[in-house]
Design a protein that fits this description.
globular; about 150 residues; single chain; TIM Barrel; four-stranded parallel sheet; alpha/beta
Length: about 150
């Protein structure tokens, strides 16, 4: 089975996110940080619960976010979008996933509970057969503890 993840909403604006969903059938969006520029595009992504693979450090390095403190991740989550926290290319960005989680909490103000939800959102968005995805989610829930 093939899955579709489309890079959109980083260099291109919200229209690139809408096109990725409507034309290309994206099941996940790589980045998507500019989707809030168009309420209709944001509504489409929210309605379909399409995961946004947000890469905080990379978004700052690419100029998609003006600074770490001004990264749109908290606004995306507050808008009810299905946000996951990711590294783009750890070797190029010089960052680990643990570093991105730390930035999300310490710089962007995500609570530990909100971070837990973003981690579980990533597991729910995994391109795996259903039984394997369910097992992954359960393993992560057990390791993270009650939330």
């Amino acid at each position: 089975m093939l899955f579709r993840s489309v890079h959109a909403g980083e260099w291109g604006g919200a229209d690139s996110v809408r096109e990725a969903v409507e034309v290309l059938g994206a099941e996940r969006i790589g980045h998507g940080v500019r989707v809030l520029e168009d309420p209709a595009a944001a509504g489409l992504v929210r309605e379909r619960q399409i995961p946004l693979e947000v890469c905080v450090t990379s978004n700052v390095q690419s100029g998609a976010a003006p600074s770490l403190a001004e990264h749109p991740l908290p606004k995306l989550a507050a808008a009810g979008l299905n946000v996951t926290i990711n590294t783009d290319d750890p070797a190029i960005s010089g960052i680990t996933l643990s570093d991105e989680y730390r930035l999300a909490v310490e710089v962007l103000g995500l609570s530990p509970g909100a971070l837990r939800e973003r981690i579980l959102a990533a597991a729910r968005a995994a391109f795996l057969p259903e039984a394997e995805r369910a097992a992954l989610i359960e393993r992560i829930r057990r390791r993270l503890g009650p939330g």
